[in-house]
Specification:
The protein is α/β, with parallel strands linked by helices. The protein has a single domain, classed as HUPs (Rossmann fold, 3-Layer(aba) Sandwich), CATH 3.40.50. It has helices at 21-37, 61-85, 100-110, 126-131, 134-141, 162-167; strands at 12-16, 40-48, 90-97, 115-119, 145-149. Strands 3-2-1-4-5 form a 5-stranded parallel sheet, with helices on both faces. α2 links the parallel β2 (40-48) and β3. The radius of gyration is 16 Å and the shape is globular. The relative contact order is 0.21. Belongs to the universal stress protein A family. Residues 12-150 form the UspA domain. This is Universal stress protein.
Length: 169
């Protein structure tokens, strides 16, 4: 097949995970496709760096980011064990960045991803309203196929803390 031809059969699938129920659904779909097509799965969690805000004394932004990274890595270890138990090759990455969509797009390029599986609703709140939808940016700018899963909007419009989201994982 010529190098510039796009294949409908994925070989390297990226799943951006924010530990919402929607991203869990995306992981389930990626697992099915990876099993069917013998594709590798790349799980990516982006810990967003927040703008400077007043934190309680003794709490630093660095400590919050480090705790989020460790928690994500712990959850990914469980997912990796489960996927490898099904014979699926999986790689995980926890990145930190101000631009979540940009970090996802970098991962696509770096890992030569040919399929992204992403959901319409992840962690909700004011962020998408102010900065635009991460999913929308990935769909518009990804250099590969994107499978968009329409999932129900979360019941609450307030942002749920990442520690609460990660509890079920």
């Amino acid at each position: 097949m010529p190098e510039d031809t796009v294949s409908a059969v994925p070989t390297r699938i990226l799943v951006p995970i924010d530990f919402s129920s929607s991203s869990h659904t995306a992981l389930e779909v990626a697992t099915e496709l990876a099993d069917k097509f013998h594709a590798e799965v790349f799980l990516l969690n982006v810990v967003p760096e927040s703008p400077v805000v007043a934190l309680p004394e003794g709490v630093s932004e660095a400590s919050i980011v480090e705790a989020a990274k460790k928690q994500a890595e712990g959850h990914f270890a469980k997912s990796k064990t489960s996927l490898e138990g099904k014979g699926i090759t999986v790689k995980t990455s926890v990145e930190v960045g101000y631009d979540v969509a940009g970090t996802i797009l970098e991962a696509i390029e770096t890992n030569k991803i040919d399929q992204v599986i992403i959901s319409t609703h992840g962690v909700s709140g004011w962020y998408p309203t102010v900065f635009g939808s991460i999913t929308e940016k990935v769909i518009k700018l990804a250099p590969c196929s994107v499978l968009l899963l329409r999932t129900p909007k979360p019941k609450s419009s307030t942002k749920v803390s990442s520690s609460r989201l990660m509890e079920w994982w």
